[in-house]
Amino acid sequence: MRCLHGFPCAHPFRDSSEGMKDLDIYGLDGRQLKLFLCVFDTVSVSRAADQLGITQSTASHGLERLRKALGDPLFVKSGRGIAPTDTAKELAPRVRAVLIGLEGLRTSATYDPAQDTGAFRIATNVTEILPKLIEIKARICKAAPHVTIHFHDMGSRVNAGELLSAGAADLVIAVSLPSYPSLLLAERLYSDRSVCYYCPKQRGPIESVEDFVEAKHAALDFGASIKSSVGQELERQGIIRRIRMTAPNSHTLAELMRDSDYVATMPLRLHKTVFKDFSYSTPPMALPPITHDMLWHVRNDNAARNSWLREVVRSTR
């Protein structure tokens, strides 16, 4: 059953696994897999064709070959656009992993960023290191003007392994953890110190441990029972802070703290961005530096493209 423009309509009774038993997988090649992933990421055949430097007719023909090989429509009409089928959603991370593996076959001499028309995916907590991300974006765009750059908000830093293993990110930049799974490689990237932010219209600076303990604190919510590095250190020192408000990211936290007497212990670098309108004081207790690591999957360690991207990120230290 087909709709306009040759796109299949979703059949209400079709089993997504139907026709998947005898796949012609050996009839596929890397270009077709790259096309599938590009359509999946852009949710548009025309945009995917533009990114890959091919005509829309060639892209449509390639998709039809994929449908026959995989035994699934992959994308169906949805309103004015298209939407991936359940099978396409299931295949996307596996196809991404296959392409990453193929990328690793190339030697460093074969990668030319100026000719690259693909996409880079960097997962991080965007507002935490926004000035650094602006630098990274500028350097990538200068050397690789035809690539698409995706900055993903990764949420909790414990998500790094899943994102890299699934191929959903080329690199992760996250607050350091004491250890990582064996399939992840890590390198220290940035370091910063903690300060206590406050609204000077509503309260004065934190001047003692007693003042810190009595203050109303605002903090990031990492979900479940995950504690920040600051929270872990305060707990180790036996210092209890009253967290009266939490938010999912530093931008939201700063906005909610405006014109209030909350205190937030956050990295100093945020004074250049989301906390620029706040005053800050040095914490009355010793706190370790806040460090960020760059992480990548071990399968990409020798991949020319990933190695180039890591070098770009290193250059922003």
TrEMBL record:
<feature type="domain" description="HTH lysR-type">
    <location>
        <begin position="28"/>
        <end position="85"/>
    </location>
</feature>
<dbReference type="InterPro" id="IPR036390">
    <property type="entry name" value="WH_DNA-bd_sf"/>
</dbReference>
<dbReference type="Pfam" id="PF00126">
    <property type="entry name" value="HTH_1"/>
</dbReference>
<dbReference type="GO" id="GO:0003700">
    <property type="term" value="F:DNA-binding transcription factor activity"/>
</dbReference>
<dbReference type="InterPro" id="IPR005119">
    <property type="entry name" value="LysR_subst-bd"/>
</dbReference>
<dbReference type="InterPro" id="IPR000847">
    <property type="entry name" value="LysR_HTH_N"/>
</dbReference>
<keyword id="KW-0238">DNA-binding</keyword>
<dbReference type="GO" id="GO:0003677">
    <property type="term" value="F:DNA binding"/>
</dbReference>
<keyword id="KW-0804">Transcription</keyword>
<keyword id="KW-0805">Transcription regulation</keyword>
<dbReference type="InterPro" id="IPR036388">
    <property type="entry name" value="WH-like_DNA-bd_sf"/>
</dbReference>
<dbReference type="InterPro" id="IPR050389">
    <property type="entry name" value="LysR-type_TF"/>
</dbReference>
<dbReference type="InterPro" id="IPR037402">
    <property type="entry name" value="YidZ_PBP2"/>
</dbReference>
<dbReference type="Pfam" id="PF03466">
    <property type="entry name" value="LysR_substrate"/>
</dbReference>
<comment type="similarity">
    <text>Belongs to the LysR transcriptional regulatory family.</text>
</comment>
<protein>
    <submittedName>
        <fullName>Transcriptional regulator, LysR family</fullName>
    </submittedName>
</protein>
